Amino acid sequence: MSTPELLKVKHTLHDLTLPEEVQRTLVEIAEDHEYEEALVANGLVPRKTILIHGPPGCGKTSVAHGLAALFKLPLYLVSCSNVVGSTLGTSEGNIDRMLKSAYLNTHVLLIDEFDSIATKRGDSEDGAGRTENRIVNTILTSFDNNRPRGLIVACTNLFERIDPAIKRRFDVILEVPLPPQSALLKIAEGILKDRFDISAKEIVMNCSTPSDVARECNRRLRLAIVEDEKKNRGKKEEIKRRERQKKIEQALNVPQVDKQPEPQMALRQL
Length: 270
Hints:
The protein has 270 residues and is α/β, with parallel strands linked by helices. Helix content is 51%, strand content 10%. The protein has helices at 20-34, 36-41, 60-71, 90-104, 127-145, 164-169, 181-192, 200-205, 210-252, 265-269, and strands at 5-7, 49-53, 75-79, 108-112, 151-156, 172-175.
């Protein structure tokens, strides 16, 4: 298993365009932590484990970035494709170490592709089926016996594949749907910021997800920046060319200094 990757936090929650229900839940999570002492005094604890599901490109990982920014915590990424091992017991050990990092350190642990390790348990007796069941049991035991110091945020595109018992262990389950076109337009306008006369509406017409919008906006900006730089360089080169030409012309037009006549004294003496 590779070690969790420290990410640069790219978004705040204010940068995101989310459904009202999702926004309300995130506000509640923030308030949980702000009033943690009062909750604990009444036998409750802040919500710290969050399962986010939705179609690809809807902004699930952006929510994790926003939470890290909100709580001013480092953000670490673990891709579950790097967790599953080929030898007996390797996967369980990797998962135990992965979750233990969240129990021992105050950070946001983002677990991507969570469905690949939290698949529904079945009755299959083959090697793969037994391994999947052991992995799920490891996750359940870990969640039952520990609480993260920061946050655990697991993301999945395949919510229906996750074992029901694991779903029940999460404090919060958030569904992030694809946003409407009006929300995509707001995202595009926020990225473009009226630069280079690029049409946000034109971009949104050909995009269906926030990640599509961001990718196309950045592509258009790159093209515009490069084209603008080409023009600037062309202008600068033209200015330099004219300056060189001017210097040459000035050098060619410098009047010759007249030679002084030779003294006549020597001729008279002759």
